[in-house]
Amino acid sequence: MALAVTIAFSIAVAGATRFAELRRDGAMARATAWAALAVAGLAVVAAAIVLGIVVMAKKS
Q: Is residue 4 within 8 Å of 41, Cβ to Cβ?
């Protein structure tokens, strides 16, 4: 699980970086694709955080 979250976060960072570069260069179609990848990576990370909080809350 930890490896999947790490990979998802690195995909989000890479997507955000490429999005910024391509948007600056004017390639909006490719920039949008990278932005979608960044959002998907962040969604996976957020889901893992929520899952962790739920699991910790149920152990009482």
A: no
Quick one: which of 35, 43, 40 has its CA closest to 19?
A: 35
Residue 50, burial from CB neighbour count under 10 angstroms (0-12, 13-18, 19+)? exposed
pLDDT digits (tens, 9 = 90+) for 13-56: 999 999 999 999 999 999 999 999 999 999 999 999 999 999 99
For 18-34, the DSSP string reads HHHHHHHHT-HHHHHHH
- The pTM is what? 0.84
What are the residue ranges spanned by the domains of the chain? 2-58
